[in-house]
Structure formats: C-alpha cells, structure tokens
C-alpha cells in the first residue's frame, strides 16, 4: 500500500487516550523518514539514514508490517502542522527459530521532550491492535538487558520473558 | 533464584502498602495477610523505613504507609536492601557470590553462574513496583474476562 494514509484502527480506549493527549497515530509516510532517522541518531549516537529509508521501503504499508508515527500539537493551538513525536515499527513473524506466528516490536522511539506522557504506550497499544487485526495473539520484542529504559517500558506494558533465549559467541 | 526470608517479607510489605498509598497497615496486619512472623516483619519494615520506602505513622491506629515512588523503585532496589545479587563484572573476583576454584572447570562454572546472576539482575532491575501492581491488575482482569466468557458459554 504505497503512500496511503491509513488512520490507525486503534481500540476506543487507545483512540480516547490519543485524543486526550492531542496525539494521533497514523501510518508512516516517506516524509517522516528524516524525523525518525534524526530521533534514532540522537538516541543511539549513530546516524543511519539509509537504514531508515530501507525500513520505510520494507514496512511502509506492507501486509503484516507496520511503521507507525505519533504526531500532535503540544501547545494546543489548532493551526500549524502537527509535530512528529515518535514512531514504532513491528511485524508479524512466522516460524523463525521455530516460533509460531506472533507479533514483534522491532523498534520504538519517542522524542525526549515528549516522554513520560504516555505516547510510547499509545504507539505500543495501536501496534498491538494492528497485530491482532493481522491474526496473531502474542507480542514479542528483543532487548539488550543493559537497556534499562526500554526494558522497564516493555515490562510496564506487561511483557515477560518468553520461551526463546538468545545465545551468542564470538566468531574466532 | 531463591530470595532470603527478609527480602521476601520486604517485597510483600512494600507491594502491599504501595497498592494503596493512602492506607495504613500495621506489621501485624501485613503479617496476617501473608501468614508470616510479625516480629520478623517489624524489623524488615524498619529497614524499609530507613530506605524511605515506608513511613511509620505513630499513635493509636498507626502503622505503615508507602512513601516511595512506585514508578521509580524497582524490585532490585528493594532486594538490594536485604541481600546482594552478585554483579561479578563489577565486583570482579571479590563479588558477593562464592567463587568457584581457579581451575578451568571452576572458571567455566563461574561463567554460567554469572550469566544467571546477570539475567536475574536485569529482570529485577527492570520491574518497578508500579509495573508489578499493574501486571497484578491485568492478570485479575484477564481472569475475570475468562470467567465471564466461561459463564456465558454455559
């Protein structure tokens, strides 16, 4: 689905919360990629514009893949363009590492000035609704255990350790 | 992971009080709910008080009240008041956990035990009291929906 603007089909609760926050969650457009890349660069200290352009190509409207944007007005003023506030990327994955079909959150970011307002939770809830609509009943993610900020966020959404454990070894 | 008795009592008390920060409960009230020793719990509550997690309310009808920040306090913060889950990478060979002998087998065993400690620390360190209470409510809500679904199906 090329550059269509599908308004997120969030639950009534998520939609109400979005309205209360004056924030809307919608599908990403090509014009959002620069803001997403800039937020990621600020969060990780590493600029990866080509990577984000690729994510948009793969996830922007593909079936079972979701690239969502939160936008809104902070001053409550009715005029002017809404401001980029955050993003989330997820997809349905089936049978990788033997796991049955499930939803995966691949990445999530919220502008530092907009944190602790519930925008990350709103993005997560809308993505979960999309994943449910795609026919899956579980949501997963993968995190570095030293990443306490994101680890605490996903724990607060009710995620617990799943049955898959990541193993690694240096290639020497 | 097996937590010491004082640690478990500390977690019971702080979570029970954090469920409703306006409510006051005595050591005996909490001990009764969890069927544990009120004397031991009283000592644990004093430790929680020194850490700023609970306030002692004096006088008749007094007791303890939650005074911490449930969104900022993790299970690891509470556990750390009573025992240490060793952080070998930080502590080196003088870490809290008994080290295995400095042999190839001992060192390999140390690596496995350090991995388990790391996972335990990451788990306890990422779950706040608020998250625990929220997850409890979520589970209760899910169980209620299931019960209602079963009743409707009957």
Number of strands of chain A: 5
Return residue spans of chain B where pLDDT drops below 50 for at least 5 consecutive residues. 89-94
Question: How far is the first residue's CA from the last residue's CA of chain A?
Answer: 44 Å
- Structural class assignment of chain A: alpha+beta
The percentage of residues in β strands of chain A lies in 15-25%
Beta-strand content of chain B: 5-15%
SS element count, helices of chain B: 7
Succession of helices and strands of chain B: HHHEEHHHH
The averaged pLDDT of chain A comes out at 88
- Describe the sheet with the most strands of chain B: 2 strands, antiparallel
Q: Provide the residue-averaged pLDDT of chain B.
A: 89
**Spatial separation of the terminal alpha carbons of chain B:** 41 Å
Report on this model:
The complex is a heterodimer of chains A (172) and B (154). Chain A has helices at 12-21, 33-44, 49-59, 119-133, 148-156, and strands at 23-27, 65-72, 83-93, 102-110, 139-141. Chain A is α+β, with helices and mostly antiparallel strands. In chain A, β4, α4 (119-133) and β5 form a beta-alpha-beta unit. In chain A, α1 runs antiparallel to α4 and α2 crosses α3 (49-59). Chain A is globular and about 55 Å long. Residues 1-10 of chain A have low confidence and may be disordered. In chain B, a hairpin with a 5-residue loop joins β1 and β2. Chain B has a two-stranded antiparallel ribbon. By secondary structure, chain B is mainly alpha-helical. The N and C termini of chain B lie far apart (41 Å). Chain B contains 7 helices and 2 strands. At the A-B interface, α5 of A face α6 and α7 of B.
Keywords:
heterodimer, A: 172 residues, alpha+beta, five-stranded mixed β-sheet, 5 helices, 21% strand, B: 154 residues, mainly alpha, 2 strands, 60% helix, 5% strand, globular
């Amino acid at each position: 689905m090329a550059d269509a603007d599908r308004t997120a089909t969030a639950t009534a609760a998520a939609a109400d919360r979005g309205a209360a926050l004056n924030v809307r969650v919608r599908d990403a457009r090509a014009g959002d990629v620069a803001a997403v890349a800039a937020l990621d660069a600020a969060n990780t200290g590493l600029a990866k514009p080509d990577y984000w352009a690729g994510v948009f190509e793969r996830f922007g409207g593909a079936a079972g893949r979701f690239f969502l944007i939160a936008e809104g007005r902070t001053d409550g003023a009715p005029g002017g363009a809404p401001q980029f506030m955050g993003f989330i990327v997820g997809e349905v994955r089936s049978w990788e590492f033997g796991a049955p079909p499930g939803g995966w959150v691949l990445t999530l970011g919220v502008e530092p000035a907009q944190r602790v307002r519930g925008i990350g939770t709103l993005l997560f809830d809308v993505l979960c609704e999309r994943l449910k609509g795609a026919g899956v009943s579980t949501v997963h993610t993968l995190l570095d255990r030293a990443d306490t900020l994101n680890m605490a966020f996903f724990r607060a959404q009710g995620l617990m350790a799943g049955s898959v454990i990541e193993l690694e070894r240096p290639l020497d | 992971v097996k937590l010491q008795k004082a640690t478990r009592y500390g977690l019971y008390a702080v979570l029970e009080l954090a469920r409703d920060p306006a409510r006051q409960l005595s050591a005996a009230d909490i001990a009764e709910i969890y069927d544990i020793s009120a004397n031991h719990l009283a000592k644990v509550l004093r430790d929680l008080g020194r850490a700023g997690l609970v306030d002692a309310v004096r006088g008749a009808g007094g007791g303890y009240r939650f005074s911490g920040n449930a969104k900022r306090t993790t299970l690891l913060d509470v556990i750390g008041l009573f025992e240490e889950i060793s952080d070998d990478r930080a502590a080196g060979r003088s870490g809290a956990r008994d080290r295995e002998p400095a042999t190839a087998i001992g060192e390999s065993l140390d690596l496995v035990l350090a991995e388990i400690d790391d996972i335990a620390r990451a788990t306890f360190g990422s779950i706040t009291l608020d998250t625990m209470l929220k997850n409890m409510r979520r589970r209760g809500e899910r169980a209620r929906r299931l019960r209602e679904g079963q009743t409707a199906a009957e």
